[in-house]
């Protein structure tokens, strides 16, 4: 699968999540004010969707190196230093993402073992919500490894 197709599928997924959260929000507001019937879980679901979308978008952004970054100092260095610093930065980012995957899975696993559910009427399993961090950073790890292989 080419990176353009992967990007398109990722953006389509993010668009679907944004549409779903918008529709849930509109439905919740209309039901609350037009029919005086509130969905107690709508805010929770929207929050989970937005967190998952944000972390997936972070991981996808790593494929194209499209993050905001301060490059004022980097641009003033000689090309050899720029290349070396780029490799160090890539290694540090990979290590950081790997640590977040490891500990994120550990936190989600603990929530699973404790059978922790949200306190709302939805009773949403918290391990699913907590898996957003390792999922997003696992995508970032894959992207960083792909970028490292390209260099």
Account of the 3D structure:
The protein is built from 6 helices and no strands. Helix 2 runs parallel beside helix 6 and helix 4 runs antiparallel to helix 6. Helices cover 77% and strands 0% of the residues. The longest helix has 35 residues. The chain has 151 residues and is mainly alpha-helical.
Identify the notable features of this structure and list them briefly.
single chain; 151 residues; mainly alpha; 77% helix; elongated
Summarize the structure.
The protein has 151 residues and is mainly α.
Instruction: Give the termini separation.
Output: 20 Å
Largest sheet: none
Annotation field: number of helices: 6
Mean pLDDT: 88
Low-confidence stretches: none
State the share of residues found in helices, binned by percent: over 70%
Order of helices and strands: HHHHHH
SS-based structural class? mainly alpha
Strand content: under 5%
Number of strands: 0
